[in-house]
Structure to design on (636 residues):
């Protein structure tokens, strides 16, 4: 059958082509037969019962309506006051500090700008807030960036000790701040980004690792690498630094696909953790997307490591990592695995249904009603924005609203967030502000 | 003889009007919209190889997403709602396939359809069975295009938007579907 025959019979040729085709078939018996065959085939299809003869339950529409809250039917929704999240009390800060430090090395991760989705533009996802909401979030993010710029040191870094954090994570916190500012390279933010990039480049050791060697140096390094990749601007020094940093990340991956401490004689699987792993993985994913030399197998192993944590049921995983640790009150990494599987999903054709698993993770963890940290808010909002699950839109809106409402609005700290979750004793105000801004940016985009 | 009932629905302009009312907060309009389109969605999901019960779940999920995305819907001429609806339906079906892939092997399409409630092969004409078999024997990528064009009345452009594939691909798939259907039916008829 000629290519045009089907289009002609289905009325899909434009007027000019149709006229030419009709002229043609008037003098071409072969094409005329083809047209007749298509007509006969279509007639058979239309005349016979549809291949699917049964019908859905007529009560389905009513069931759908029952799942939509009644207030959704008002044309203009009244402003609602959302319950603020009960951030972990700072009263146990001393105890938490010790526990946290351990956890931080084992299982800590921070919000960073993983794939570029957040900055790829307003894609109009289901999770996208309304226009007034976006404006409000944008102004909140803008204030946060202004505060971060004001808190930057002359050398381009951010000093955690001045803001209630630990000096050990100066590189990571500088990375977070750079990530938070990279979404806006104009004016003072752009200059601050340049200075921060310079600081991170100067902090790279001969070995390629960014920051001084310590138990948590791979955590610092992973975030700094991602921040450099995301930072605007290009120079041969920066490109070379990124390549070396990526090489370090790949060589530091454990045989099982995770990251934890710098590989040395004492490193073993027990030191693997989701937090360092997610930043390292994101850095590699972004590096690969931007054509830096990466090992696709390393990325795949990283995803597989997270996926193994899902376990057979898609939720409960191994004894040491992943979902099993995402138990209320134990640590605050509940959404990292969810984001990891969504991230893999976005790269296409996952072996398992990671997207649904992530969706399930989010639902179950939210049902536990744990207090959210800034860290969790970031991963949660990233995940929800990617999942586009309508039934979780309220969660997204509530989380966003909570962050918007809790920003400091007056005084010298205006634009920052009070560091009062469980990770604040280490991250301080730099952590709370950078992560809150990144979380809102995720939601905004 | 069952004619293309869905085409009648699809060709009515009321879907856009209903969506406008839904955006304005009309519960009744949304109910009417769902009642008008759930059959089309059901056929779409079944042709995608999804069984009866899961198809019903998919229908619910699709309508929930339609409601969530209602503010994003922009009437842009005849058929825009169909593209909008089936594009969402396609994403829901992809999620469904992934879920089944994770849980268990997917049932062969024929088994899915033969298990549907009330299915009685003896009640159909021989020709009808031939046509049904011919359609079901198409690869899914061709089957969906045929289903949307022949049974749901979507134009090529609407199909392209719904399935998020180039217009040329729609044309190509329809062409190959017609070739294969004609061959299958010719063999069956002459056998």
């Amino acid at each position: 059958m000629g290519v045009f025959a089907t289009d002609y019979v289905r009325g899909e040729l434009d007027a000019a082509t149709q006229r030419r085709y009709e002229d043609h078939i008037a003098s071409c018996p072969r094409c005329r037969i083809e047209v007749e065959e298509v007509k006969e085939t279509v007639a058979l299809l239309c005349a016979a019962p549809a291949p699917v003869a049964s019908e859905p339950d007529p009560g389905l529409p009513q069931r759908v309506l029952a799942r939509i809250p009644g207030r959704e039917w008002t044309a203009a929704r009244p402003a609602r006051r959302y319950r603020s999240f009960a951030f972990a009390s700072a009263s146990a800060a001393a105890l938490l500090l010790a526990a946290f430090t351990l956890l931080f090395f084992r299982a800590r991760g921070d919000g960073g700008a993983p794939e570029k989705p957040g900055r790829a533009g307003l894609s109009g996802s289901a999770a996208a807030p309304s226009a007034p909401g976006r404006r409000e979030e944008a102004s909140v993010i803008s204030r946060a960036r202004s505060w971060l710029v004001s808190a930057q040191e002359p050398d381009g870094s951010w000093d955690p000790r001045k803001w209630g954090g630990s000096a050990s994570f100066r590189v990571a916190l500088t990375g977070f701040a750079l990530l938070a500012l990279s979404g806006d390279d104009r004016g003072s933010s752009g200059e601050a980004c340049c200075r921060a990039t310079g600081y991170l480049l100067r902090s790279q050791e001969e070995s390629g690792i960014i920051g001084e060697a310590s138990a948590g140096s791979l955590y610092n390094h992973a975030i700094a690498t991602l921040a450099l990749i995301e930072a605007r601007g290009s120079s041969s020094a920066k490109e070379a630094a990124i390549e070396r940093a990526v090489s370090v990340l790949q060589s530091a991956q454990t045989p099982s696909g995770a990251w934890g401490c710098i590989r040395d004689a004492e490193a073993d699987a027990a030191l693997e953790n989701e937090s360092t792993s997610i930043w390292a993985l994101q850095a590699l994913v972004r590096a690969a997307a931007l054509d830096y030399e990466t090992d696709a197998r390393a990325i795949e192993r990283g995803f597989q490591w997270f996926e193994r944590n899902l376990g057979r049921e898609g939720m409960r995983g191994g004894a040491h990592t992943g979902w099993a640790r995402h138990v209320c009150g134990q640590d605050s990494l509940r959404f990292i695995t969810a984001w990891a599987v969504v991230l893999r999903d976005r790269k296409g054709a996952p072996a398992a249904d990671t997207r649904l698993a992530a969706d399930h993770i989010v639902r179950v963890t939210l049902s536990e009603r744990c207090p959210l940290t800034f860290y969790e808010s970031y991963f949660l909002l990233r995940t929800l924005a990617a999942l586009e699950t309508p039934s979780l839109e309220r969660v997204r809106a509530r989380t966003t609203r909570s962050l918007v409402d809790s920003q400091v609005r007056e005084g010298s700290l205006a634009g920052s967030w009070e560091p009062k979750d469980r990770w604040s004793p280490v991250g301080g105000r730099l952590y709370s502000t950078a992560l809150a801004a990144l979380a809102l940016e995720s939601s905004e985009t | 003889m069952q004619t293309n009932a869905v085409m009648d629905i699809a060709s009515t302009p009321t879907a856009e009007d209903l969506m406008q009312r839904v955006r304005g907060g009309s519960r009744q309009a949304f109910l009417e919209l769902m009642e008008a389109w759930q059959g089309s969605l059901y056929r779409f999901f079944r042709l995608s190889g999804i069984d009866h019960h899961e198809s019903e779940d998919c229908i619910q999920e699709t309508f929930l997403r339609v409601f969530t995305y209602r503010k994003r819907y922009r009437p842009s001429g005849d058929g825009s709602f169909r593209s909008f609806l089936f594009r969402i339906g396609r994403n829901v079906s992809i999620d469904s396939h992934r879920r089944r892939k994770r849980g268990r092997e997917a049932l062969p399409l024929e088994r899915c359809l033969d298990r549907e409630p009330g299915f009685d092969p003896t009640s159909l004409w021989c020709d009808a069975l031939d046509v049904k078999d011919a359609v079901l024997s198409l690869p899914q990528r061709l089957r969906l295009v045929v289903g949307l064009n022949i049974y749901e009345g979507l134009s090529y452009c609407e199909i392209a938007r719904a399935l998020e594939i180039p217009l040329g691909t729609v044309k190509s798939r329809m062409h190959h579907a017609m070739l294969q259907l004609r061959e299958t039916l010719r063999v069956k008829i002459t056998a």
